[in-house]
């Protein structure tokens, strides 16, 4: 079972910042998950919410900021003890760093609310530029977007994100021709796991934040757990928790 930091090591560091990504790997993560959206001027940025309000000292929608404007915001304002200002990374800044790391990246196209035009094409451009093809999994709650990107780049690995308890997810995901299914961990009953495995799906699940849940996922043979505390998952994998 692989251990991916959800928005980096977001349980202890400002989510979706370069600091959180670095700290996840230091905590033993095999990779990180991040969220990509577009600014007003069509630039890719790494941030989860459609608005900047929760995670930064600014207010408004990501899509209403230019890249230069959004880079002025403090993405670590809730973490003042860190004593440093952390910016919202551009996706290119992330890719440049990731190219130098052995770690994997689950790139979540955060287009479940706003279906950002051309997001798939833009993300693919940086994956190619930084030769990240073997290191990434592309996922989205927007399954139309997953299929669009798959048609642009059939060589990449894709996963369908799902928070609902979809009935017979194996047949659905296999029918869409993706390799992975990314469900909410609590929906992974033995029957659902068996269904997904019978359809040869890799199971990458979120957001696994307790030792009990991590041990359960390990016992069920899940491929990747995505969680806010990669240090905790590291301990579980070592049999120390
Ligand atoms: O990709 C796993 C997880 O990040 C999906 O939910 O809302 O945290 O992006 P969310
Ligand atoms: Mg996400």
Specify Rg, calculated over alpha carbons: 17 Å
- Given the helix and strand composition, which structural class is it? alpha/beta
Number of helices: 9
Please list the strands of the largest sheet in the order they lie side by side. Answer: 1-2-4-5-6-7-8-9
Question: What is the percent of helical residues?
Answer: 25-40%
- Name the overall outline: globular
Secondary structure tally: strands: 9
SSE arrangement, N to C? EHEEHHEHEHEHEHEHEH
N→C terminal distance: 15 Å
List its traits.
241 residues, alpha/beta, 8-stranded parallel beta barrel, globular, binds SN-glycerol-3-phosphate, binds magnesium ion
Describe the structure.
It is built from 9 helices and 9 strands. With 241 residues, the protein is of the alpha/beta class. It has an 8-stranded parallel β-barrel with strand order 1-2-4-5-6-7-8-9, surrounded by 6 helices. Helix 8 (211-219) packs across helix 9 (230-237). Bound molecules: SN-glycerol-3-phosphate and magnesium ion (MG). Magnesium ion (MG) binds next to strand 2.
